Amino acid sequence: MRFSEKLPKLRKNNNLSQEQLAEKLGVSRQAVSKWEAGNSYPDMEKMLQMCQILNCHLEDLMDDGSMGNTSIEGSKNKIDLNVCMQDFLNFITKLYNMFVSMRFKEKIEFIMAPLVFLGTILTHLFGGSVGREGTGVQIGGTIGNSLAKALKSSEEEKKVLLISGVAAGFSSVFGTPLTGTIFALEIANIGRLSYNSMLPAIVSALVGNSVVKFLGVKHSHYKIPAQEAVDIINVLKVIALAICFGLISRLFVYMTHWFNEKLIKYCKNKYLKIFVGGTLMVIATLFLRNNLYNNLSLGLLNDAFYGKVPILAFIIKLILTALCLGAGYQGGEVTPLFVIGATLGATLSHILGLPFAFCAALGLVGVFSGATNAPIACFMMYLELFRANNIVFAMLVCIISFFISGHKGIYKAQLWNE
How far apart are CA 121 and CA 217, in angstroms? Predict the structure, then answer.
């Protein structure tokens, strides 16, 4: 059976019209119609999005037999480049590993880079509910440490080098150079920015973003919410949202540490710990009877802006991500945090009577702000992703979530200056 025959069948099984599928993919209805008529093929990025939307595997969509179509092969090569670039440049979560090694002179072996890369690939291959940022951080830290040694850099120069690398990585992955710059400066030392690092950081962020654009890497785009009136009723509703986002951030951090502690307590052997964690993840996936919560869950993230997510999607994604990270699987927390925040916002929008996209956008940055303790960077991210609509509410959410979540965050080695 060919792709053009499989697509309409899977689409109808999921009760989707051509218009609905096109809207989820961000393409025109005519494009979907051409795919189903066999007149053209989508690129591999769209194929992967369809797998998420239609709850199927890639082989369920591809033509049966050999994948001899040149356009498909060309797209596959393109997406392989995209994945490699994201894995290599995603210098975001677990940033504290770099700063811990910097402050305590911890030796970083170069062999760590390929090992953690392979570990992340295996985690995603078998459906772990994690991001890909951990790999980028480990590789970036290893390369940065090696470069600093080669250049015989001072401690201050090493810090500037690491901050610049993080800024470039964040900017490259999300297409947000301003956010990448502020995030890298803000995350290392809460309440104090390194002004000496600002110029190298912004230059690195701009160059990194330009390089991935040149290589054809596409960034995710989300529905931009309409402007909401800044009145007392909406302000009170947004404050309630922000409190919920802060509490969920706090719960995520707690659950990650809790799973880690319990698995260490009852599984003395590290391999047994990983086996038990993976077994629990498999059982949960079989019980849920879908793969919405495996890997990055980008389908859930996109659906949140249209209010089409299960009511408890945020808590399921939170538990499964905390389980995988607590068990020791390689990956990151950032994209799962986006999914948790956006789906929580979509769920709360039904209760508060606010637009789906409005609450999902605030949730995306709100939960991230609480978990990372980086409210200014998260506000900048809102500006770059969703433009200037509702910026008053965005700043309110980032600040309140930051204070509600407490001092503990996903980066254990953060320094607080109060």
Answer: 19
